[in-house]
Amino acid sequence: MRTHIFASAACLLLWSFFASSCKNSGNVKPSATGARFELLVVMDDELWQAPAGQTVFELFDQDTPGLPQPEPLFKINHVKQSDFGDLLKPSRNIFYADVSPEKYTQAKIAYAKDYYSYPQCFVRVTAPSDSAFMQAITTHGKEIAEYFVVSERERTMTFNKKDLNKNAVREVQEQFGIQVDIPVDLKQSAQKDNFYWITNNSGYIRQDLVIYTYPYTDPNTFTYEYLTAKRDSVMRQNIPGEVEGSYMGTEWKYARPIMREITVNGEYAAEIRGLWKILNGGSMGGPYYSLTRLDEVNQRVVTIEGFVFAPATNKRNAIRSLEAVAHSMKLPQDMNVIGEINVTGNKKTQQPSNNNQ
Q1: Which of 120, 97, 105 has its CA nearest to residue 27?
Q2: What is the pTM of this model?
């Protein structure tokens, strides 16, 4: 059901607004308010209750890909234009819709960062008619949703830089010659040859991150079949389950992994979202996200993957957080390194050990 902003939420926003204003009195714009993956839709009630509003709702309420249970892409709050005042303008994600034959002759989409607050993501769609508005959403809805998702990821990456596990960052740099912004919440690590594993080891929402590399010898490496098979091989060798003979594998029965070709720092990358489970014993499982790139300097493939174990709990934000860590990875070519990197493997431990900041 389409949601509205309640009084309690308004009070929370009011408190956050004044708190941030006092704290940052020297800033022109207030700090953005609201929770991660929360979206404020500004649209008059008549339009919101019409097919045009339903189109917007379905765009942002669609299931987040790669999760074991349905979770919406965003938590949607709706407000009509007349109620969109100073209290709500600092919201972190705003989708603003305006349909008027008097004001507009054609549909237009405008994207803006930090329009009313910082850091904020703002999209405005204007159109002369309901049909023109719906056509704009149908045609460009995917890129609009992606704009909000990427903005959330960038916020997380910026936040992580403020509180890193410096020991882990150094370990990864020394072992692989790459940079990854590993947040302080991930504390227990283990190293093997060409394999690194770190976890928060939480009993509530467990988050794990692994990095592994192998030589680049064949252009067919960056195919769906090769990357998914390679993942199973690496995980079987390096992440055993509690039952003897069990190991982490890919869950194929309920949902096939989804691969997408993207660009990172202007270069090709392959991202895969899927489900994992402990095979041959055990009942653990959950979502994973992997990002694979080519280290051009050392002619090797580098994969960084995050996976989550959180039974009976929503997992969207947890896996999105690890996705942000993956996208912080800088390979030698990203750091303008000339020549080969001296890469070492080394510490051999079966399970992650304590690695404090």
Answers
A1: 120
A2: 0.86
